[in-house]
C-alpha cells in the first residue's frame, strides 16, 4: 500500500493505493495520526485507489474520525469509495442506522465539504 | 499474480492447502489462495471478495487471539470445492477461542461508544453462509478448527 498526504487551505487530503489489511493498516494510522497530532482535523480520505480494506482499515477510520471530531468542525470524510469496499462498510454498520462518515462520489465535492 | 501457480481448472473433491506462519504479511497470500479457488469454482466477483475478506478476518483473529500476536506458529488453510459449496477450513494450535463470548457490534452506538471488538467475527458470519468453530478436548493436543462455507451460487 502507498499513502500520500496533501495539504489544502481548508483541509488535508490523504490518498491510499492498494490494500489495507492488518499488515498495512499501521501505515494508514501513521498518516492519519501525523495530521491529527499536528492539529489538522479536517481530512478527506480518497479511497479511489484502494482494492481492498479489512476491519483493520475500518478501525483506522473509526479512530481517526474520533480524533477529528474532538475539534470544532473537525471531520473525516470519505471520497470515491470503491463498490466492494462500500458494501463491506455497509455490512459493518458504518453507513447506518447511525452513519459514521459522510461519503462523496468525487474528490472536488469532498474537498468542498470543508 | 501468484507465487505458487495453482492448477486450473480446479478439481472438485481435491483439498487444496496453504500453510502460513502467523504473520500479517501472509494475509495477502491467504486472500490470493481462497480467491483463486473461488474464481476457479465460477463464483461471482462479489462472492470471491466475500470469501477473501472472511479468510483474512479469520486469520487476523487467529493471529491476534489464538496466538496473542504475530509469531512463527502455523495456520493451515484448506480449501475444497463441492458441487454446491466452497469450504474453507483453518487449523491453528493456539488458545481456543469462544465465539459466544464475543459481543456483536452495537450499530446504534455513537462514535465515542463504538468499540470494534467482534467486528471481524461479525463480518465473517455476514460474508459466509456458515461459520463453525470446533475445539479439541483439553487433554488432546490443541487443534482449533474453523470451518467456513459459502454457496457457489449466491
Task: Outline the structure in words.
The complex is a heterodimer of chains A (114) and B (154). Chain A has helices at 25-36, 55-69, 83-91, 107-112; strands at residues 2-7, 12-20, 42-53, 75-79, 102-104. With 114 residues, chain A is an alpha/beta fold. A five-stranded mixed sheet of chain A has the order 1-2-3-4-5. Chain A is globular. Chain A starts with a strand and ends with a helix. Chain B is α+β, with helices and mostly antiparallel strands. Chain B has a five-stranded antiparallel sheet, covered by helices on one side. The A-B interface holds A 19, 21-23, 52, 54-56, 58-59, 62, 65-66, 69, 84, 87-88, 91-93, 96-98, 100 and B 23-25, 27-28, 31, 46, 49, 52-53, 56-57, 60, 63-64, 105, 107-112, 114, 116, 119-120, 122-123, 126-127.
Q: Catalogue the unreliable spans of chain A.
A: none
Separation, N- and C-terminal Cα atoms of chain A: 27 Å
Order of helices and strands of chain B: EHHEEHEE
Approximately how much beta-strand content do the residues of chain B carry? 15-25%
Task: Write down the overall mean pLDDT of chain A.
Answer: 96
The chain pair with the largest interface is:
A-B, 24 and 30 residues
Distance between the termini of chain B: 26 Å
Strand content of chain A: 25-35%
Work out the oligomeric state of the chains in this entry.
Answer: heterodimer
Number of domains of chain A: 1
Just give the CATH class of chain A.
Alpha Beta
- Number of distinct helices of chain A: 4
> SSE order of chain A in H/E notation?
EEHEHEHEH
Query: What's the CATH first level of chain B?
Result: Alpha Beta
Largest sheet of chain A: 5 strands, mixed
Radius of gyration based on Cα positions of chain B: 16 Å
Query: Which architecture name of chain B does CATH use?
Result: 2-Layer Sandwich
